[in-house]
Amino acid sequence: MLTEFAQTLGRYRLHARLLWRACPGWTVAAAMVALLNSAVGTLLLISTGQFAGALPEAIRGGAGSPAADHAWRWFALTAALLITGPLVAALMVWVTARTSAGYLAHVFELVAETGVHPQGIELLDSPGFSGRLQAVVEATRDWTFTFGLDNTWTVLSRRLAGVGAIVVLMSWHWWLPFFIAGSFVVMSKTYATWLNTSFDKLLQTSASELRRARYLRGLLVRPEAAKEVRLFDLTDWVVDRYRSTWLSAMAALWPLRQRGLRPVYLSCLVMAVAVGGALALLTHDVVAGTVGLAGVVTLIQAMLALESFGILGDPQLALAQSTAAAVELTRLRQEVGLPPTRPADESPEDRTTSVGAVEVVLDDVTFAYPTRTEPAVANLDLRIPAGQSVAMVGVNGAGKSTVIKLLCGLYRPDQGAVRVGGADPAESQAARRRVAVIFQDFVRYHLSLRDNVGMGAVARRGEQQILDRALSDAGGNGLLKRLESGWDTVLSAEYEGGTDLSGGQWQRVALARALAAVSAGAGVLILDEPTAALDVRAEAALFDRFLEVTRDVTTILVSHRLSSVRHADRIVVLDPGAGIVEDGSHEELLQAGGRYAEMFTLQAQRFAQVDEGSGG
Ligand SMILES: Nc1ncnc2c1ncn2[C@@H]1O[C@H](COP(=O)(O)OP(=O)(O)OP(=O)(O)O)[C@@H](O)[C@H]1O
């Protein structure tokens, strides 16, 4: 039990630390307002007690008597405090909203950092880790998260009001308030420990089940699934699966909750005995004449105010839920070697950009994905001199995309070394910035065309000539003409004035993004099959044009269509398990009559047949 108490205290310390790191100014302001709010409450119970105590004397003295004036003065103070209370509460809402916004932004920063640490994305491939991180993200997206944050200050203010009540009660019997408050604290902490354990369990043990349940619920409303759900008449099936998945997630929690509640019942009993005893003592003192009317009113109110050390209902529940997300995030950060929060004075990263082509080297590289045992690439050696264009070809699963991800520093090799311009891209931000890549599943940002292209050159996205040239080199001028608001058109039909693009148009936008990156200093340009939606001729024309406009950088092209990449300086053929099996120019490889020649001839024949078919 003591360890659990310590853990509860630890999570509030963590919460305070995160708040302080996120927005120190607003945190101080919110704490001050919470203190003011509680002070108003304490003063109010004193002034009402004094006012009530002054009334019998005032009644005896009559209107205008000094005793009546005395009662009026306490009345005026009580009325002023009653007016001040709501004003301070309104101020608290305002300050609280600012604090929560800062905290939320900071948590998103921490989540993002956790997802890509250490630099690569390998952890996101591990279902356990990425599932837990996803659960944290979902918890922070939920409105209850901000509600819990807001309630930090309600809880603090009420606890401080309890401190005020202790001071008041100490003037009667100094030891008594500690006795009563202690019983409330035991009850509250037992309850909080139970709450926290429940929420932690919810995030840790049932997160993936709950996520699956949410996914199933989403199937009923998501446009991409709606067609099939209706066509195959899946509604009942989805609803049943949702219900059973949700129930199985929650069923694991219910017995735990029941067991955890027993100490809460016990501590309620202790608290009832303490308050009952205090009321008996008060009755005794009143009968003995040591406590008057003012004392009775003040002391009873103070005793009731001690309740604020106890269970605070919704505010406490919401706060526990929010801190559960922060605790789990901290655990995940610790697992990847990150501190719970980010230091305030991080030195700004070096954004100086080098220009020109760079050499790319893979030296005896072996790499297996975290979820697999057999390596995706083994003992791979590849050296691409600065400025050379290389096409990487091979059957499905040969490891082409894996090589590209290693070059981008998204994964670290298990053995061997990867170098871009002499530096390890998994370690060096500068090396990563020298690589511009467009993957087959590139991101279609629901942002303007300007942002979609400019993201390749974030530091120089204001330079229109870079964007113009990139789009034109990517063959996107026709597309620009068709957009109603030109560069500022949002590329999504979900926004007013926005429009979606065809697969081929999107690919040109993505290619323009890569070319913008080259203008901004990237020394290696990689295209990992982003042109699959274009027809064979369009892809070949685009690749030729690419090789033309990227003469000054190292270029790596990945494609299954060999005719599209035949003009690359060099072609390497990858084979699953065997690594690079052929390496040379198009002509050299044709002459060698090996795997490449065989694949090329086969594709050329099929292409000719299709051509004939369409011609006839
Ligand atoms: N994220 C991943 N997790 C686990 N295994 C993966 C992952 N990505 C790829 N693999 C596996 O690694 C091997 C190499 O895949 P890779 O995508 O590099 O091949 P590829 O040559 O690019 O194939 P394709 O031509 O189909 O794009 C395959 O066996 C694949 O199943």
From TrEMBL:
Residues spanning the signal sequence: none
InterPro entries hit by this protein: AAA+_ATPase (IPR003593), ABC1_TM_sf (IPR036640), ABC_transporter-like_ATP-bd (IPR003439), ABC_transporter-like_CS (IPR017871), P-loop_NTPase (IPR027417), Type_1_exporter (IPR039421)
Record's bilayer topology term: Multi-pass membrane protein
Transmembrane segments: 28-53, 74-95, 160-186, 264-282, 288-306
Domain (ABC transporter): residue spans on this chain: 360-601
Keywords (A to Z) from UniProt: ATP-binding, Membrane, Nucleotide-binding, Transmembrane, Transmembrane helix
GO MF annotation terms: ATP binding
UniProt key word Glycoprotein: no
Chief location of this protein within or outside the cell: membrane
Designated name of the protein: ABC transporter ATP-binding protein
